[in-house]
């Protein structure tokens, strides 16, 4: 992505994207850039924008953008807890463009994401990251996330995945 039009880092307004918004194209492009940055497969941005619209319309997904033009994106998926009637949120995607990392913008955006999840009734949030992504881990831990079962002194939690196709 060409970052020559990056928004002023002081412009850090967060907005929740409605299902029909023009902002879905920006969200999709940021998500594609995220995958490409890590050499992961990425769908066509137009397809992804349509797919995000479908997810949002289904009611269990929120897409949030930071800045105008957008410089960060988050995708939250909501579900009902197994152990109570409370809602839980999964931070499925969280991306800040490279030139703005290390400036506290990700931390500020994560605080807004947590507020949004609470506003939607979530009482718990989970996410995954890699052991090597120390910068992301610092941001998450600053906001109270813990990678130990039961927090604190519990065993380290692990995330497993399997393609079913």
From TrEMBL:
**Which Gene Ontology cellular-component terms appear in the entry?**
ribosome
Q: Does the record bear Methyltransferase in its keywords? A: no
Iron found in the keyword field: no
- Source taxon at top rank: Bacteria
Tell me where in this chain the N-acetyltransferase domain is found.
14-165
Q: Which GO terms describe its molecular function?
A: acyltransferase activity, transferring groups other than amino-acyl groups
* Alphabetized InterPro entries for the sequence: Acyl_CoA_acyltransferase (IPR016181), Bact_Acetyltransf (IPR050832), GNAT_dom (IPR000182)
The UniProt keywords, alphabetically, are: Acyltransferase, Ribonucleoprotein, Ribosomal protein, Transferase
- Identify this protein by name: Ribosomal protein S18 acetylase RimI-like enzyme
Organism of origin: Nocardia puris
